[in-house]
Write a structure and sequence with these properties.
DNA-binding, four-stranded antiparallel β-sheet, 7 helices, Jelly Rolls, homodimer
DNA sequence: CGTTCTCTTGACTCATCTCAAATCTGGTGG
DNA sequence: CCACCAGATTTGAGATGAGTCAAGAGAACG
C-alpha cells in the first residue's frame, strides 16, 4: 500500500516540524519525504543504529526508550502525532523507537534533511521550540519518576491518556469521559519506572476506590476528572506554560 | 564588588550560548549583559516568577528543581559552567534555580535578549544544540531515576563529579583521582530521588567496599575509576554522543 | 479449541523510607 | 584558645511500598 499526501493536506501540518514553513519550504520538504507505516510492536529505530531515521509521527503512538546492560528498561519519551523523531546531524541513535500501536511516519531522507535544516530558519526555529517543549516534559517526568508513588504515577499517565483521548475526539475534558489506554501494561511499567504487577495492582486499586471504571483492560471511564487530577498530585500552582 | 569582563576574555566563551558568535555579535551581547554573583544557598529564580532571568552560568554549580505541593522535591537539572539559564520568550519560570555554591552568572537583559536571538542565527543554533544536549541528559537521568538502585545512583553522581573535577583541574580521568562533592547530601537526595539518609548510607557502603575513600564528607578519592563506572551500571554500549 | 499473550492476584521478600538519636563540623563569642 | 551552637552528616531500628516469584484468569488468534 502506497500512502502519500501532500504536506498541505497533512493532518499534523500545523503542529509538526513544518509548522512554521511557508509554501515554497513545504515543497522542498515534500521532495524529500515519504510515508512509512509500522505495525504495533515493530521497532522503528534500534539504539546504536547508524544514520537513524528522521521524521514526524503522523498517527499512532510510539515510545522512546533506553536500557541498561542487564535489561532494565526505561521509557524516556512518548511520541504522539506531530512529534519529531531524530536529531539532525546525529550519527548514532541513542534510543530505541518502538511502535506502540500501528503507526504512520513521515520520514525525511536523512542527508537531505540535514542540509535543508541548515538553511531553513523556519525549520530550525520550530525544532528549537519543540525541543524545549520536550525538555520541559522530560523534566516533568523526572519529578514523577523520582518522587511520585505508584498510585500517583498511574493517575498521572491516565491524565495524559485522557487529554490525548479528548483531543482525538475533539471533546472536552470533564466528568464521565472515556478513553483508550494506548500502551500495554508492560510499556506503562517501563514508562513509569514500575513493574508490570505494580501497574496492574494500582489499576485495580484506583478501580476499587471508584476513581476509574474499567470497561476492559484498555478502556477507562472517569466519573470525576478533578478527582483523577488530585490522585496524580500534579501541582497546578507553579504552572508550566510557555 | 563590580565584576566585569569582555566576552572575548570570558572563561566560558567557547562553550556557552555565545559559542558560535563572531566578533560583531559578541559586541551586541556585551551591551546587554552584566555579571551578577550569588552566594551558596541563594535562590536565583523562583518557580512561578515572571520574566525570569536569562543568562549563562560562568562559575560554580546551580540546581534546577521542581516541587510537589506537599513539599516533595526533585532536582531536574544540574547547571555547570557554560550552561544556559532560562527559555527565551517564556513568561513564567517553571523551576527554582538555586545556587549550590557561590555562583557567577552572566545575565542578559530579558527583553533585549529575546529580540537579539530572533535575528542572530548563531545564537539560535547554539541554543538548539545546547537544548538537545540537555534533553539527552534529562533522558539519561530518567533512566537513573526510574531504574537504578540507590547504590548505582550514588556511583552515577560521583562519576559526574569526577568528570567535572578532572575538567576543572585539566587532569585526566583515571585511577587515584580526587574531587570535590559540590552538593550537600540533601541536594544529592533531591537530584537522585532518594532521601538524605539513603544517600549517606550508600556513601558509607561504597566506602566500606573500597570503591571510594572519603577524606571528609565533601572530598572523595577513587582508587579504581573503572570500578566506580561499573558500580554506576552506565551502559557504554548504546553510547550517546551527538 | 488449544496456544499464546496479556493481565490480574496472592504470598512473601527486600530496598528504601521514616523516625530518632548520636556525631561531626565550622563558626562565634568570650 | 576554648566552649558552645547550628547545621550537616552518619547511624540505628523498625515500618512499608514496591519488587519477585508463582499461579490463575481472560482475550486474541490461528
Amino acid at each position: 500500500m502506497e500512502i502519500n499526501f501532500r504536506c498541505g493536506e497533512c493532518p499534523i501540518r500545523h503542529r509538526a516540524i513544518c509548522a512554521y514553513c511557508d509554501e515554497p519550504e513545504l515543497e522542498r520538504l515534500d521532495d524529500i519525504k515519504s510515508y512509512k507505516a509500522y505495525s504495533a510492536g515493530e521497532t522503528i529505530v534500534w539504539a546504536g543504529e547508524e544514520a537513524p531515521l528522521i521524521g514526524s509521527l503522523v498517527s499512532g503512538v510510539a515510545t522512546l526508550s533506553r536500557s541498561l546492560k542487564d535489561g532494565r528498561r526505561q521509557m524516556v519519551g512518548l511520541l504522539l502525532p506531530s512529534d519529531f523523531i531524530g536529531r539532525p546531524g546525529r550519527k548514532v541513535a541513542p534510543y530505541d523507537v518502538v511502535a506502540a500501536n500501528d503507526v504512520l511516519i513521515c520520514q525525511f531522507r536523512v542527508n537531505k534533511f540535514n542540509i535543508l535544516i541548515d538553511d531553513t530558519p523556519a525549520l530550525e526555529r520550530r525544532l528549537l521550540d519543540m525541543t524545549m517543549d520536550e525538555l520541559d516534559s522530560a523534566r516533568e517526568w523526572m519529578l514523577l519518576l523520582g518522587r511520585k508513588t505508584a498510585r500517583e504515577k498511574i493517575a498521572s499517565v491516565l491524565v495524559i491518556f485522557a487529554r490525548r483521548g479528548a483531543e482525538l475526539q475533539h471533546s472536552e475534558l470533564g466528568d464521565g469521559l472515556r478513553f483508550e489506554v494506548p500502551l500495554t501494561r508492560e510499556a506503562m511499567a517501563d514508562y513509569l519506572g514500575l513493574t508490570i504487577e505494580t501497574v496492574s495492582r494500582q489499576f485495580s486499586a484506583l478501580k476499587k476506590s471508584g476513581v476509574i471504571i474499567m470497561e476492559d483492560a484498555r478502556h477507562i471511564r472517569v466519573p470525576d476528572y478533578v478527582r483523577l487530577l488530585n490522585e496524580a498530585s500534579d501541582d497546578s500552582d507553579g504552572g508550566v506554560i510557555a
